Amino acid sequence: MQSAGAPPWDDLRVLLALHRHRSFLAAGKALGCSTSTVARRIDALEAALGRPLVHRSNGGTSVEPDALELVALAERIESGLRAIRRDGGEEAFSGTVRVSLADAVVRPVTQLLCGLRRLYPGLLLEIFSEARVVDLARREADIAMRASKSSSPAVVHRPVGRVPFGLYAAPSYIERRLRGGRLRTADFARHDFVGYEGTPGPAPKTTWLVAHGAKRFVLRSNSHFALLEAALQGQGIAVLSEPAVRSTPGLVRLDVDVELPLVPVFLAYHRELRNVPRVRLVLDTLDTALRDALR
């Protein structure tokens, strides 16, 4: 039953689609309905609430700032509905588990979990490479691999080890700029670097470089693979995790006169999921593999 004063989900999902797609036409396509239906839903919602929710202009449409609270409500409802659908598996190890990862580990984790699916074919996987930190408290994912802890009491963090990092460059860069392959921190300022840049700002690894004197970043990216390719192309020096680079020929680890970063790794999940068999299965499989890899 719809509570008094709360807009119906059918109207909120239209507002959410309009916020995401910035036009009535695109929102209708995303929802599988006509432009007139989208407009009618928005008009009805504005009439029910007694205030404008959408700014219409020749340049497109946008949600009014004081309507963003309704967009946030729609996102929470959407995440909750997805979580309910994911929990609908009938057999113990059947149903969907959504895993959020940094792109540096997507391939080995996917290989691992595909092996798990051969043992449990009823298990369905959603594996997402995301630069942003997903909100586990809102069930945007079931399990996330991350380097820091959430402040939410609803999220459990299981420490599995620490990832060692190194400074890497292509032979072409070493030949051109760094004969011998030894790098002193006193020389960081005159070298080219490629650095990780996420949301809302630089990652700790890039901050570490800056703190040790790096000034010239010729390329920044939120993708491990972009940084890896830039380093392979001789664009500059990159801070990369040792496990991720081990299987990549064409890069040389540089000798440095400073201690390199060790980044903690946690498997995080919503407290309510700890007794869901399929989530526990994936969580324990990842835990064992990561502890072995990070010894």
From TrEMBL:
SUPFAM superfamilies from the entry?
Periplasmic binding protein-like II, Winged helix' DNA-binding domain
- What are the BP-aspect GO terms? DNA-templated transcription
Give the record's keywords alphabetically: DNA-binding, Transcription, Transcription regulation
Which intervals hold domain HTH lysR-type? Answer: 7-64
Note the InterPro entries from the entry: LysR-type_TF_proteobact-type, LysR_HTH_N, LysR_subst-bd, WH-like_DNA-bd_sf, WH_DNA-bd_sf
MF terms per GO, please? Answer: DNA-binding transcription factor activity; sequence-specific DNA binding
Presence of keyword Transcription: yes
Q: Which PROSITE patterns match?
A: HTH_LYSR (PS50931)
The family annotation for this protein states: Belongs to the LysR transcriptional regulatory family.
Q: What is this protein called?
A: LysR family transcriptional regulator
The beginning of the lineage is: Bacteria, Pseudomonadati, Myxococcota, Polyangia, Polyangiales
Q: Which gene encodes it?
A: lysR
